Amino acid sequence: MKFTLKIWRQKNAEDKGGMVTYQVDTVSPDSSFFEMLDQLNQQLISKGEDPVAFDHDCREGICGTCSLYINGRPHGPLKGATTCQLHMRAFRDGETIYVEPWRCGAFPVVKDLIVDRSALDKIIQAGGYISVNSGGVPDANTIPVPKPNADSAFDAAACIGCGACVAACPNASPMLFVGAKISHLALLPQGRIEAERRVRQMVAAMDSLGFGFCSNTYACEAECPKEIKIANITRLNREFLAAKLAAEKEQTGGFAI
Amino acid sequence: MALAGVFLLVFLAVHLGINLLLLADDGGKAFSAAAGFMGTHPVIRIFELALFGGFALHIAFGVIVSIRNRKSRPIRYQHRSLSETSPFSKYMMHTGMIVLLFLVLHFIDFYFIKIGVVSPPPGIGRHDFYSRAVALFSDPAYSAIYLFSFLVLGFHLNHALQAAAQTLGLNHPRFTPLIKAASALYAMIIAGGFMAIPLRFTLFN
Ligand code: HEM
Ligand code: SF4
Ligand code: FES
């Protein structure tokens, strides 16, 4: 297969950057998107040019390191899959493919297609944890968990923190990511204890980092490689309102609906 | 944002209820009685203030949020987004602004006359909204603007009701799909209801 690639090239964080057009031929339909980029990079290296920098690690859809906004969609055209799980057979022979970095003020470009996603880590640091050691595996049924809660918590825990939700959102909002983390912990007894404080702190962190606000477009749900559900954002909103409107103790912090 | 929006949703339903009285074949008696009640009853007067507040809050929040949302992506994508979104959700500011333009027109035509800022056209009393409406709808250009505005309001509302439920944290495996359907139904009733009035006056008079 043959492709025309239009790739965002940017030397470093300060560089202005721009789209550069490349040609790749003799691509196997069975090669992955990254193998195709590896092929392009070989081409560039043999010409003495700087290879295209992109993030990747596990290359099997579990680590959340890969990104890439491909033809107007984060992680490309395949539903429920990361860029590393995307194969060239998902494209037409001769197709022009746009490859861009995640775009969000809170995700500055480091180089080419690599962005700094530590803003998501800062949200986790604000409350996405359990403060005490919850110990080893307890005896069965000593901590009862309703089955639907266990299932929903498990689904939410599938979030790999890739940031595709932010990349897809017209407002660059990380609500699906935050909703997944809040739900994952709030639905289980060990996490429930700090749920009120957690939601206040994580939302405050999210609002302070330059992300946009959710306006319920649901683009995130359509693009999430782990198919995290919108119901997690609803749960986040519910937990947030409950923490703001009904609390055991007076709290500090802003109030916003 | 959501609470102010929900308040506006209720207001629209009441307003439609009154306007539909225009369709009654009684020369405007029922409509004028209802309009008179709304124009003079003290409780309604208080609600009128709340309504202005509701609009102001909703528009102010809408504008602030939209500006911040645009700023959150300083460098935009080269390729247009192909991500699927909820219908009209990306265009809440656009549809909202068209509704706002209509509101300005609506104020000039009705409210300013009622409070005496603008004098009514000759032959129509200051509180005679029925004659005023009939006169306005006899102009096809005015009716066209009116129809267009309510079509656009319908688009705004289609997303509005279910978005407000989402913002307020309401979710249920059975009720959420119902709320989505109710949202579309509400939008169709409000838009269709308001649009029926000029259609009746221009087509059948
Ligand atoms: C009678 C008129 C109106 C009604 C009933 C109404 C109702 C609503 C509702 C219920 C929402 C959903 C809130 C949420 O997502 O939580 C909404 C969103 C919105 N409205 Fe309106 N609205 C009206 C007029 C306007 C006007 C005049 C503007 C002008 C600027 C406007 C701008 C917006 C914007 C920008 C949003 C999306 C904001 C967001 O969800 O974050 N609306 N509207
Ligand atoms: S919610 Fe989905 S898209 Fe967002 S960070 Fe988690 S896995 Fe990625
Ligand atoms: S490289 Fe690990 S998820 Fe794609």
Name the average pLDDT of chain B. Answer: 90
Biggest sheet descriptor of chain B: none
N-to-C SSE series of chain B? HHHHHHH
Q: Determine the strand fraction of chain A and express it as a percent band.
A: 5-15%
Helical residue percent band of chain A:
25-40%
> Could you give the distance between the termini of chain A?
51 Å
- The name of the CATH superfamily of the largest domain in chain A reads Alpha-helical ferredoxin
Average of pLDDT of chain A: 95
Q: Which pair of protein chains has the largest interface, and what are the residue counts?
A: A-B, 44 and 36 residues
Radius of gyration of chain B: 19 Å
Q: Tell me the CATH topology of the largest domain in chain A.
A: Fumarate Reductase Iron-sulfur Protein, Chain B, domain 2
Strand content of chain B: under 5%
Structural class of chain B comes to mainly alpha
Query: What is the alpha-carbon Rg of chain A in Å?
Result: 21 Å
Largest sheet data of chain A:
5 strands, mixed
Shape of chain A: elongated
Q: How many domains of chain A, as an integer?
A: 2
Count of helix runs of chain B:
7
Structure summary, number of beta strands of chain A: 7
3D structure, described in words:
The complex is a heterodimer of chains A (257) and B (205). With 257 residues, chain A is an alpha+beta fold. Chain A has two domains: 3-110, Roll (Ubiquitin-like (UB roll)); 118-245, Fumarate Reductase Iron-sulfur Protein, Chain B, domain 2. Helices cover 34% and strands 11% of the residues of chain A. Chain A has helices at residues 33-46, 118-125, 147-157, 164-168, 175-186, 189-192, 195-208, 219-223, 231-245, and strands at 3-9, 18-24, 69-70, 73-74, 96-100, 109-111, 114-115. In chain A, the strands form two sheets. Chain A has a five-stranded mixed sheet with strand order 2-1-5-3-4. In chain A, strands 6-7 form a two-stranded antiparallel ribbon. In chain A, α5 packs across α9 (231-245). Chain A is elongated and about 65 Å long. The mean pLDDT of chain A is 95. By secondary structure, chain B is an all-alpha fold. Chain B has one domain. Helix content of chain B is 73%, strand content 0%. Chain B has seven helices and no strands. In chain B, α1 runs parallel beside α7. The longest helix of chain B is centred in the N-terminal third of the chain and has 30 residues, at 42-71. Classes of the chains: A alpha+beta (257), B mainly alpha (205). At the A-B interface, β4, α8 and α9 of A face α3 and α6 of B. The structure holds protoporphyrin IX containing FE, iron/sulfur cluster and FE2/S2 (inorganic) cluster.
